[in-house]
Structure formats: C-alpha cells, structure tokens
Design brief:
two-stranded antiparallel ribbon, about 40% helix, 10 strands, about 280 residues, alpha/beta, TIM Barrel
C-alpha cells in the first residue's frame, strides 16, 4: 500500500478520514496551540483531533480559518466528556462544542470514555446527530469489545471509529481484529507510548537502518497496520518530522519485530477501571 500525507481510509459509510492527524491533548496555551495546529495544516496534515476536555476547541476552529483552508478540507474530531454524557446532555454538549469551534457541522463526534450508566444512551445521541447530518461519521473512544457489543444491541448504525490507546507496547491485537471484522476503523492515541519508546534500542537501530527517528519508525508501524494515528506535539519541527514518514516502508520482518515489543502496558487508564469524575 503506497501511502502519502494525503492518504485516507474509507469508513463504512463511505466517508474518507485522513490516516495521519494531529492530536491536541494538553495544548492549553491558546497562542501556542494555534501556532502548532496552523503549522500542522501548513505541513499537510488534514485532520485535527480534539475534545471538550482539552479546552482548545476554539483554537482548532481559529487554526482552520487561519490556515486559509476550506472547512471541508480539514477533518475535525471532538468528543463528549464523561460528565456531559447521556442522551439529552450529549446533544447539549455537542452544540457547545460546535459553537466553540465556529463550525456548522463536525466530521466525527466520539464518546470520550464508556461511562457505564450512560455510554449506550450517549451513542444513541451521536446517532441522532448523524441522522440530522450535523456530523459526518459516528464513533467512540476507549471502548472495549464488550462496550461495542452493548452498543450494537441498541444501535441502528455501528460506530465507524474506535479511538483507543495503542502503541508497540500495547498492540491491542484482539480488539483491533474485532473492530476490523465489524468495519470499525481504529485510531491510535498515545501512539508513541507518551515518549516511553523513543529510546528503545531495537527502534533506535531500526531508525538508523532507515535513516529515520524512532518516533518516525513507530508512526510508520501504525500506518502499515492500517491504523489511523494522531501523534501530538506543539513543537513545529517535531510536527513536521512526525509527518515525514511517507518516503520509506518497514519490512515485514521489522513490522513483526516491533509487534514483539508488546507488553499489554498502558500509559493511560483501562476503560474498565477508570475514575470518570476527574
């Protein structure tokens, strides 16, 4: 599969989502956030992943406009936070996010975490937004297989995306397989294990072999596994470097060697054991 920075994946409703996007978690300084996002769009990124929790939806909208791009040329994702979940609350939270972004529609809206009492109703609200053409695609985040199966029992439309923590240390093979079997695209958050893999000797050696950094090796690994990937950085040089992954291809053997780094090790919370009130 030949990949470029413009490469997209077709979701099960026919919508195209960019394979590489910018994650903007913890970009809380407005000026720094706008600079980082605008840089990414100028480099060629065409997807930005935010959330109401991140408190930078306003800056996402500003960045799209500042980059001089048409709204339809940038794929924007945001998420409903845990305290705002439930059917009616999700509809209200969506309106608040849309107003902050300054958009009249969203490309993708996700449940941020599967709050036990509300995640099914939250997804029903996301379905309504989809039916009303206020969002182009439906999705969830941090959902295990059993969460998805509960949604399937009530949903008219399956989620099109599941955004999960995924890195060479946490390959999530079984969940990825389940999602693939159900035509659910997987987006990797914390794709570099929050930087914890950058000094991994085998990845450094691989980087030397390909003339790349270990971060670039890891991002390429995600892409070659048909994963959507959203590395985050506020540093313009690193934002550009994270996108410089389309002029080489990892060998089958190297892909398997990276797979073997799996320890089922999370840097974030397990969705089945999470305090939803922070």
């Amino acid at each position: 599969m030949t990949l470029t920075i413009q490469s997209t994946k077709t979701l099960h409703n026919g919508i195209e989502i960019p394979r590489l996007g910018l994650g903007v978690y913890k970009m809380t300084n407005p000026e720094e956030a706008v600079k980082a996002m605008t840089t990414a769009l100028q480099v060629g990124y065409r997807a930005i992943d935010t959330a109401s929790l991140y408190a930078n939806e306003k800056e996402v909208g500003e960045s799209v406009r500042a980059a001089g791009l048409k709204r339809e040329d940038v794929f924007v994702t945001t998420k409903v936070w845990n305290a705002d979940q439930g059917y009616d609350q999700t509809l209200r939270a969506f309106e608040a996010s849309l107003e902050k972004l300054g958009f009249d529609y969203l490309d993708l809206y996700l449940t941020h975490w599967p709050v036990k009492e509300t995640f099914v109703d939250t997804y029903r609200a996301i379905e309504r937004l989809y039916d009303e053409k206020l969002i182009r695609a439906t999705g969830v985040s941090n959902h295990h297989q059993h969460h998805l199966e509960e949604i399937f029992a009530k949903a008219n439309v399956k989620p099109m995306v599941n955004q999960i923590e995924l890195s060479p240390r946490l390959t999530q093979y079984d969940l990825r397989t389940f999602c693939a079997d159900n035509q659910i695209a997987v987006t990797s958050w914390s794709p570099l294990a929050r930087g914890g893999l950058l000094d991994e000797p085998s990845l450094v050696r691989m980087g030397n072999k390909y003339g790349k950094t270990s971060a670039q090796i890891i991002i390429r690994w995600h892409l070659q596994h048909d994963l959507l990937v959203i590395p985050k950085s506020v540093t313009p040089e690193r934002i550009a470097a994270n996108a410089d992954v389309f002029d080489f291809e990892l060998s089958f053997e190297d892909m398997k060697n990276i797979d073997s780094l799996n320890l089922n090790e999370r840097t974030g919370a397990d969705p089945d054991n999470f305090s939803f009130n922070f």
